[in-house]
Amino acid sequence: MSAMSVDEAVRVIGAGARGPRIAAVFDFGGTVVHGFTPPSAVRRLLRRRDPRQVVAAALLDSIRGARAEGEYERFLQRVMHGWAGHSEAELAELGEQLFRRTVYGHLYPEAWRLIRAHEAAGHTLVLASCLTRFQVGPAAAELGIDNVLCTAMATQDGVLTGHVDGKPLWRNGKAERVRQFAATHDLNLSDSYAYADAATDLPLLELVGRPHAVNPDPRMALEAGEREWPVLSFRPRRSAPVSDVARTAAGFASLLGGALAGVAAKAPTRERRAMADAMISHAAGATLRATGVRVRVTGAEHARDARPAVFIFNHQSQFDMVVLAEVLQSGFTGIVKQEITRNPVFGPLMRFAGATFIDRSDSAGTRAALAPVVETLRAGLSIVVAPEGTRSLTPRVGPFKKGAFHIARQAGVPIVPLVIRNAGEIAWRDSAIVHKGVVDVAVLAPIDVGEWDPRDMDAEVERVRRLFLGTLLDWPAPEENSTAVRQT
Question: How many CA atoms within 13 Å lie on the side-chain side of 367?
C-alpha cells in the first residue's frame, strides 16, 4: 500500500496530462463526504410518527454509502417504500435543505482540493454514486461538478412510483455506467483518475489508469496494497467532543474578558481608537489561546506595510473575525452586514471598533452608508471587507461584489487580499462550536486599483477573485518571514 499525501496528489495532477478527455471520477459517500452515524432505535421510532421525517431520514442516514450487498438492498427497500407517493420536487427540496443544514459540514476539504486540482487541469469531473440525485445533487452543485451519475428513481407525473428506473449504480452497475459515459464523451480512461473507499467500488477503480483508494475499508486496503495503488487518508468529520465544547465556552469567555482588558488598558488615554485597537488585539489573542487555535501567516509584511488599505478576505466562518483581528492587530475597522448587530457578542464589539453596518436588501441605503468609509480610509484607518457578501458553506469562493474595489479607487488606497484556509474546519458556517486546529492565512501583495478602467471593472474584480482560487489550490510555501502567531 503506497500512502500519498493530498499535497503530493495535487502536484501529480498538476504535472500530468491535461484536457477534457481525462476524467476524474469520484465516489460520493466515504470519498467526497464523510458519512453519518446510523440513528438509535429511539430516534427511528420517533421518526415513524412524521412521514416527512421518514423521508428525510432515508436521505441523510444513507449518505455514507452502503459497504455490503445486504446493506444496499435494505437502503433500496427503505427508499422504494418510504418515498413512493412523494413528489420529485418535495424530495429535491428536502435534499437541498439537508445539505445546507447538515451535509455541507461533512464534505472532506481534502476532496475539495483534489476536485479543484482536476478542474484546473481541465479534466472532466464526474461524481458517481449508488445513491439518488436527491442526496448527491446539492453536493455536486456546491462542488462545481456538472456530471452526476447516480441511481435513478422511477416517476409518474412527477411522483415517485417506488421503483428504480433502470439498473442501480452498485458495484458493476456503477462501473458500467461510468464506462458508458466515457464512451459517449470520448474520454480516455487509461489516463483518467478515480477515487473510492469501499471494496464494492473495485470495478470502478479497475476501469482507469490512475486509481486511488481513499480511507479504504479492509478489503480495499488489501487490494490497494497488492496492486500498489496510491492510498489517500482524509480526516473524518465527527461530532464535537466534550473538549471542543469546553474550549468553545472558554473561548467566548476569553473573548469578552480580553476585550474588556484591552479597553481598560488604554482607558487612561481616553482615545477611542487606541481603546478599540487594544480591545481587538487582546480579544483575539485570548480567544485563540483558550480555543487552542493557531493562526499561521504567510506574507505578513503586506498586512503591516500597506496601510491604509482595503483588506478583502474569503468568508466561511464566524471565526474569521478572530483570525482577521490576529493578523491585522490594529488600525482597521470593518464593513459588515446589519444582521451582526443582533449577535450579542460580536455586535457590541464591532460597534465599538467603528464598523460600518450595511443592509444588503437596501442598495440605496448601502451606497449612502459606504460614502463615509472613503473618508475613513483617507484619514488613515484601514477597512476589512468580505467581497462575497456572505459566508460560504464550503471553501468555494463565490462571486465578488465590486463595492470594496470602488471604495479603494475613490480613497486612493490599495486592495490587499487575505486568503484564509481552513477557517471553515475550525468553525462550520452555522455552528457555534470551535474545533482546535490551525488556520492558514496568505496575505498577498497589494493591488493598485487607481488606474483601473471602470469599464473593465468586472474583469479586474474577477482577476482578483482568481488570485484567491489559485492561492487556495497552490498554497504558497512557508517563507523565512512566515509567522506563526499566538501558538498555544
Answer: 4
Model confidence, pTM: 0.83
* Cβ burial, residue 394 (10 Å; 0-12/13-18/19+): middle
Amino acid at 274: A
- Region 130-150: mean pLDDT is 93
Distances (CA, A) of 421 to 115, 153, 424: 16, 38, 8
Closest CA to 95 of 127, 135, 131, 57: 135
Average pLDDT over residues 308-330: 93
Cα-only R_g, the chain: 25
Tens-place pLDDT, residues 60-116: 766 655 566 667 777 788 777 788 888 999 989 988 988 888 888 888 989 999 999
The three three-digit cell numbers of residue 134, written as one number: 436527491
- Measured CA to CA in angstroms, residue 36 lies from 236, 239, 251, 301, 387 at distances of 11, 10, 28, 43, 33
Residue 446's identity, in one-letter code, is: P
In what order do the strands lie in the sheet containing 382-385?
Answer: 356-358, 332-337, 382-385, 310-313, 415-421, 437-443, 293-298, 483-485
Contact between residue 472 and residue 421 where contact means Cβ atoms under 8 Å apart: yes
